[in-house]
C-alpha cells in the first residue's frame, strides 16, 4: 500500500511538472508570434499609430473595407473578429492602450452584440496564452467562473480550449504557418449570397452593456473619437425594430441598418458581400471623414 501511494504521488508530481513545462513551452512560442491572428498582432507590438481602428464582430470584420480608408490618407486597421462579442472588443481596446497605441478614431460595430455581456469562448481563448503576462487580460477575465482554473492550473487553458490554442495552433504558430486574418488590413471580404437571406431578431433585447460602457470610458480617457454604428441587415429581417430599441437606449449610436438595400449586396442576411461592404464603407467615409 505504501509503495502504491509513493508511486501515485510521484506520478502526480511528474504530471504536474510536465504540465508546467508544456505551459512554458506554449507561451514561449506564442510570445514570438505577431502574424497568426489579431490578438497576437496587438499583444506582440507596441506604440502603433492609427487614424481609424475598427472593432466589433463579423459585422465589423466583413463590413468595413480598411483599404478604402487608406485611400483617403487614413491609416486604418480592421480589428473586428468573427464570433466575438463586446467582451472581446473591450479587451482588444484595453490591450491597445496597454501597448501604448495612439488612436484618433474608433469605429465600433454596436448592434446585435449589445444583447449580451457574455464572452465568446472561441474568440476569448486567443487571449488566454498571455493571461500570466498581462495584468489587463487577468483583470478582464477575473469575474469569469473559470478564472481560477485558467490562471492557476498549469496547461489547463490549452486543454480546455484545444481547438483554438491547443497543439494544432501551437504547431502552426511555431512553424509560422500563414493565415488570412491580417490580409486587407484586417478586412475579410465575403463572396455573393451563400447563406440564408432571412433573419429573426424578435427575441433580442439590447442591454445597458457594461463592455460598451467600458469602451466609451476608455475613449473618453484617451481622447479617442468614438463612432458607434449599427450596420446593415437584409430586407427579410423580422424584429427589425430591434435597431430602434438600440437607438432609444443609446441615442449616440448611428443607425445604418438600411444604409445598403438589396439582397444582391449580401452574402447572408446579416453580412454584406464585398460589393455591399464597399458601398457601406463609402457611406461611412462620406459621413464621418470627408472633412
Topology at a glance:
Layout: H1 2-30, H2 38-43, E1 49-55, H3 58-61, H4 66-71, E2 76-78, H5 86-98, E3 102-109, H6 121-124, H7 135-141, H8 147-152, H9 156-160, H10 162-165, H11 167-174, E4 199-200, H12 210-221, E5 225-230, E6 237-238, H13 242-249, E7 254-255, E8 266-268, E9 271-272, H14 274-289
Parallel strand pairs: 1-2, 1-3, 3-5, 4-6, 5-7
Antiparallel strand pairs: 8-9
Helix pairs in contact: 5-12
Describe what you observe in this structure.
The chain crosses the membrane at residues 12-31. It comes from Flavobacterium caseinilyticum. The chain has 291 residues and is α/β, with parallel strands linked by helices. It has a single domain, classed as Rossmann fold (3-Layer(aba) Sandwich). The protein contains 14 helices and 9 strands. The strands form 3 sheets. The chain has a 5-stranded parallel beta sheet. A two-stranded parallel ribbon has the order 4-6. The protein is elongated and about 75 Å long.
Task: Please supply descriptive tags for the structure shown above.
alpha/beta, 291 residues, transmembrane helix, Rossmann fold, 44% helix, membrane, 12% strand, SGNH/GDSL hydrolase family protein, transmembrane, two-stranded parallel ribbon, 14 helices
